[in-house]
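Re: beginner question about structure tokens

> Can someone show what the tokenized structure looks like for a real chain? I only ever see the sequence side.

Sure, here's an example I had lying around. Input first:
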Amino acid sequence: MSSYNETLVEDMNTNQMEEALVIFKSICGSGYFMKTRLVLCFTKMDIFRRKLARGDHLFSDHFPDYNVMPGATPNDFEAAKTYITERFRAMCCENHAPLETYYINATSTDEVQGMWESAIGKVRQDAKEFSSGSSGTATEQVYLSDSAQRVLAIKEHLPAPGY
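And the corresponding structure tokens:
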């Protein structure tokens, strides 16, 4: 979410969040992912919160259709988070299992691990239900972004707490 006010390197006229929405819409609309549980993981929530609090960039300057909720400030963290989440949720159609949404901070390996374990558990449950309802077997396919893979790899090499 922290890229709400940034543009693409290759196209300085395209907002990174708007580009992510276009890509997510193409994934949701793909026949390959019908009836598939999708996991949406928003990262760098701590950075997003700091950027909004700093107030250098009004959230509404980047999303003209964003309306500040009554009682909220123009850069209200919860309101902006809800707005972006709902924009992504709107891309999914009824052909998908419920969209799983996670919010994690940039440097929290515990949050990444918790999200990973929860998502894998749900995928495994889906696979179990699929295989029990048919004669075939289900295959688990889970993909992590490069940054999430790096965080998990780093966590595996950190000393245990108290060392």
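Each token stands for a local structural state, so reading them left to right follows the chain. Residues 16-156 form a domain with the Rossmann fold fold (CATH 3.40.50.300).
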